[in-house]
Amino acid sequence: MIELHQALVTAWTPDPSGGPDTVTRLLGPVSLTIAERRVAVVGANGSGKSTLARLLNGLVLPSAGSVVIGGLDTAKDGPAVRRRVGFVFTDPDAQLVMPTPVEDVALSLRRTVRDAAAREELARAALARVGLADRADLPVHALSGGQRQLLALTSVLATEPDVLVCDEPTTLLDLRWRAVVDDLLASLPQQVVVVTHDLDAARRADRVLVVDDGSVVHDGAPEPTVAAYEALMRTAARR
Questions:
Q1: Among 98, 101, 74, which Cα is nearest to 85's?
Q2: What is the pLDDT of residue 18?
Q3: 114 CB contacts (<8 Å, ≥6 apart)?
Q4: Backbone phi, then psi, for 105, in 5-degree steps?
Q5: Which of 14, 70, 83, 106 is most enclosed, with most CB atoms within 10 A?
Q6: DSSP secondary structure string, 32-58?
Q7: CA distances (Å), 102 to each of 108, 135, 148, 157, in order?
């Protein structure tokens, strides 16, 4: 279970004229309990939705309040939280670090599987499950954008997280690869929180959160919540 208790994120903003720095609120305070298996987070660019996502595995720590994942406080139990919560970025190149797919997945297994041959065997099996078996030994840069995103997901899932948080995982993909990644996320047994601009994908979630100006302004069932977000964006466009 994911719990946010009056979680607030702020940042210091320098004064370009040389005056005192000011505090800028990026998100919150937010109080939420998230138990649903599939949760979508939508919002305009700069609304704070990515900050919310990063709170869930300790990439961002609250300036005040707390974030608790399965009983673990992200500020106090950071390493344990990150073992439990996998994170997938918009751009897979931000997290793929090894020369080939099989090496990248095997790297994720290093903590739990000590034998190198066993790691490679498990990595190849994981790649086969997502249709990348024939790409296992290619240079990562030779993969398409969709294949690299599948590889990034596979490397994260190899660690067997309880929760998977994805920050706009399909934004850089074409329609075909967007469908492939969406289908994979829908098939996972883990609790999945997805930040997305894809409203069709959001409608397939169990719950939708709308973030605007650093606050969760709508929270509920997919259809009415997406409709509320669309109305919010239409209003913003007329200003």
A1: 74
A2: 75
A3: none
A4: -70, -40
A5: 106
A6: EEE--SEEEEE--TTSSHHHHHHHTTT
A7: 10, 9, 12, 14
Considering only CA atoms, which of 89, 51, 60 is closest in space to residue 167?
Answer: 89
- In the chain, % of residues over pLDDT 70: 100
CA distance 145 to 40: 22
Mean pLDDT of the chain: 94
Pull the structure tokens for residue 81: 């939280």
Rounded CA-CA distance 55/9 in Å is: 9
CA-based nearest residue to 192, from 181, 211, 178, 205: 205
Domains in the chain, start-ordered, CATH in brackets? 2-237 (3.40.50.300)
Q: What is the pLDDT of residue 176?
A: 87
DSSP-assigned letter for residue 70? T
The SS3 call for residue 72 is strand
